[in-house]
């Protein structure tokens, strides 16, 4: 192989290995992505490697999980935070796959990258990504979207903040219980980024709806997060909005004979008033 051909070698090897029937070979290739990226250089990594990973249709969850994890720490290899948006497309694709652990890792990596991105890039690239996922045809995309709002919200212009609060409210009313469960789970993180006026109005309205959901699992997840939510409120607002929900839910659990869950809710109440 001539010296002129050397820069082409790593990406060619990667392509061959990622198409290999041997899953271990594919995994080894993914775990060497940083080495391959260094060999390619930042520009070719952005221009060739990342698009290839985005289009890669590997159907093995273990490979996708490894890829989602690697991309979360890949910012230095694409040229630093000013080029971090280049990493979003493959992770956005992983947010729609069926396997939960892959989606969760993709969301985790997106949060890590988003927390490093410049405000202008968050507005241009990250917020549209969140909106696309939230409007996704597959419920898996909408489930993933719920875990990204707290990263998107702070840097959003005022009009976009209003839209993001509205979209989150819609996710809390989604037809799919899995989406509503994700919205309930992530409500506390989103609430922590919302201005107090909107926390009292919009977020507490969302919370009330979730605690009255027709699915027990959604209601329980909403109540599980009430201590974190309550600590964001002024004491009088906490007593008015959170305390009645906990007391009411405790009475429901007594009726169900759910002593373990009742103990958990009691602990939540203690944490809230501590």
From TrEMBL:
Keywords recorded for this protein, A-Z: Repeat
One Gene Ontology cellular component: protein phosphatase type 2A complex
Residues spanning the signal sequence: none
HEAT repeat positions: 10-48, 164-202, 203-241
InterPro entries per UniProt: ARM-like, ARM-type_fold, HEAT_type_2, PP2A_Regulatory_Subunit_A
Superkingdom to which the source organism belongs: Eukaryota
GO MF term (any one): protein phosphatase regulator activity
Keyword Repeat among record annotations: yes
Record protein name field: Condensin complex subunit 1 C-terminal domain-containing protein
Native species: Trifolium subterraneum (Subterranean clover)
Native organism taxonomy: Eukaryota, Viridiplantae, Streptophyta, Embryophyta, Tracheophyta
